[in-house]
Amino acid sequence: MLCVLALAPLLLAAPLRAGTPQLSLRVEGLFGQPTTQLGARGGAGVGAAWRLTDQVSLLADLAQRAARGGGIGSAAVGLQATLDATPISPYLELSVAQFTNRSALGYSLATRTGAGADWQITPRTALGLVVRTYTPFDPESGNSALAGLEAALRLVFTPGAK
Fold this sequence. Notes:
Number of helices: 2
CATH class: Mainly Beta
CATH architecture: Beta Barrel
Distance between the termini: 41 Å
């Protein structure tokens, strides 16, 4: 039953209108505390999204954050649900993120949940802000207090938009 409820936004979302661009590319500046074991730090990321319906997109991104031992890299894959498509478009995201540098972070696999909004500057460009939380699947030594919080300022490009 829970799976049906989780898939409801996909099933109820309106299909894309003909000619609507499906691909968007993102460049992100990150700042936050990816783990309670470390202080706040900055980073950068790149990503892409593919619109499945009018409100739901499949997303993937790669990011790098500063940390001892070579930094903290991440790769994430998930879904983004746009709540309203106006010049300011709020959205929610749910992803799974794989991290490098487990010794600095304290975990290597986490769920990533986020809430944000993109402001459409031109048909091809948007500026956005998203706040994300990380909940580890595999905290080291069973440390259930490990978690992360991060904000990303992002520039979104939509090739082919008119």
